[in-house]
Specification:
The structure holds two protein chains of two kinds.
Chain A: E1 4-8, E2 11-13, E3 19-20, E4 27-28, E5 34-36, H1 38-53, E6 58-64, H2 70-79, E7 83-87, H3 97-111, E8 116-120, H4 131-138, E9 143-152, E10 158-165, E11 168-175, E12 178-182, H5 194-198, E13 205-208, H6 221-224, E14 228-233, E15 242-243, H7 249-262
Parallel strand pairs in A: 1-6, 1-8, 6-7, 7-13, 8-12, 9-12
Antiparallel strand pairs in A: 2-5, 3-4, 9-10, 10-11
Chain B: E1 2-5, H1 15-19, E2 25-28, E3 31-34, H2 43-47, E4 53-56, E5 70-73, E6 76-77, E7 80-81, H3 83-99, E8 105-111, H4 118-123, E9 128-133, H5 142-156, E10 160-164, H6 169-180, E11 184-188, E12 190-192, H7 195-205, E13 223-228, E14 233-238, E15 245-249, E16 266-269, E17 281-288, E18 301-305, H8 314-325, E19 328-331, H9 333-337, E20 358-362, H10 368-374, E21 379-384, H11 391-394, E22 397-400, H12 403-413, H13 417-425
Parallel strand pairs in B: 5-8, 5-10, 8-9, 9-16, 10-15, 11-15, 18-19, 18-20, 20-21, 21-22
Antiparallel strand pairs in B: 1-4, 2-3, 6-7, 12-13, 13-14
Helix pairs in contact in B: 5-6, 8-12
Classes of the chains: A alpha/beta, B alpha/beta.
Chain lengths: 266, 426
Amino acid sequence: MALKIVVCAKQVPDTNVIKINPKTGTLIREGVPSILNNDDANALEEALKLKDKYPDTFITVISMGPPQAKDLLIECLAMGADEGILLSDRAVGGSDTWATSNALAAVIRKIGDFDIIFGGRQAIDGDTAQVGPQIAEKLNLPQVTYVQKFELSDDMKTVTVERNMEDGYEVIKLQTPCMLTCIKELNEPRYMSIDKLFGIKPEAIKVWSAADVEVDLNTVGLEASPTNVFRSFTPAPKGKGITVAGDSPKELADNLLIGLKGKHVI
Amino acid sequence: MAIQVIKDKCKGCGVCIKACPFEAIDMNDKIAEINSKCTACNQCVAACPFDAIEKTESDEVIDLSAYKHIWVYAEQRAGKLMNVALELLGEGYKLAKDISEDTKVYAVLIGDNIKGLADECYEYGAEGVICIDDPLLKNFTTDGYTKVLTDAIKEIKPEIVLFGATHIGRDLAPRVAARLNAGLTADCTHLDVKVSSYIDYANKNTTLDTSTLDPNDPDRGIKQTRPAFGGNLMATIVCPNTRPQMSTVRPGVMQKIEPKKGATGELVEYKPSIKASDIRTEIVDIVKSTKELVSLTDADIICSGGRGLGNADGFKLIKQFADKVGGVVGSSRAAVDNGWIDHSHQVGQTGTTVKPKIYFACGISGAIQHLAGMQTSDIIVAINTDPDAPIMEIADYAVIGDLYKVIPEIINDWDKAEDLYDATTR
């Protein structure tokens, strides 16, 4: 019996390279690349490791976003996934995590049969970590979040994972089908392969609409989302401090200490 | 709620496109058009010089008055309450009184034989404790805790439910919210219910134009402020049409109250309906890490190292520095990503939020996602060779120099600081 794996992935702006224009307080967006979300790369890698072991494993990567998010699916296929499905529809735009999980759960229902869903713990643009558990809830699946180690039994029915905790980890056992969200400690994602990149067949990447996945339109999109943005703003810039004077490292150190002492902070 | 362009007023100037953080505006025939990436964040509404973009509010009205009181999920592990639970009780008490005098804050205890923790909850501000006790709830499981908490919420109907954004809170809260079809906001760093307190907060800490907000607005819905977009933006999230309103809150950002010894309150024993087959995961083992516990959130002094260290060995110097000044070692994400130090030391948007008395940023350039986690420190000292590094913009003391040369000097002279200071005042 071949394994069927679904991987949830998101295209995100690389928030590490974003800067704020200090004068206007606005984002400098130029030259910020869109990337495969870090934790999602770990999710895909774990699926690919299963495929390395069981070559008839079929991996479907799903994503939601504007049409250009297809690039992300191409990247995932070039890493070794078999199929990419992008849900792209104005009707799902502006979804919060609840509405997003409704939409993605509909995509997975449409796919039908699967053994394991891997997702990243969270995306670096929103950092909510909510969509994974909420998809699991909508599909009535058991879940483990913060997965740092993964093992599948030989009969492919039982999953044993380590769930990372602030002060250690838990070893958890559960049956497939299940939802697992992954962190970077789990593995080292592989690079794309040129051969695979050029071997991608156009039909391996599908773009579906809300109608294609038969999702209830009252449960997706901006209007249906229970949370709304009330206001958004940039944090107030802090006033510029003192540049510590000194020509030698010792002068710099001493002048800093004098400053800290004078302010009674040490 | 949606963003709309008033076509007659739009001049096609493109200011909104620059203002939009989400690339959600296209120019079509010299008229701005909102595309599906829009999150209704409002940046374009504020930016448009011609008032040509508006936010349309939903006019749906639902009676939400059946939901009362604030619940704090009082997370315990092995019979010990987490710090963040105590912090949230203090915050929950404050919010409850801002809603109305008869709004109360309840601690929700879930576990096996945990009634004994109720007193500690009262001492830290809880006016009531909802105790959900069952042998099957001894350890946290997503299925078990989600079921009993969701059942209790459905039955008792709290107005607001707060969770610590711990590895457990961030597993449980989304699952509960999805089952209740309620809104949930992740990793909040500030909460208000009164519009007037929101205005005060915004005026003091942000660039937000508050002139459109009415301080006498009777609205008492929760306004949940959190960093978004990697900390580049702050967003305030509301939950107008669903109940309960739910948030996870970052550990370390809310204030505990001074414990009131001997305080007491109402004990509600909620009988859970749970059976072993409800729980689909089996905990085989719980392993406590032997690695030294990094308590960044409680530290008065943090010495953090970043990419500028150049290699993992650099953290030896940072450790010496921290030992000397009685601080703990922190790090930037870059240092963690390079494998120089464990993630538990990471400060920032995806690490820990800290506000020590002194934060030493050593060889840290100050990526926005790092700043998001430490910029409320009382005093920030940046040690860096690059005078133009973003960290210098927010540093109280900018030391421009080689950290490998300067830090040893600070360590040497740390104990002499008083003498050095006295010498300058004489």
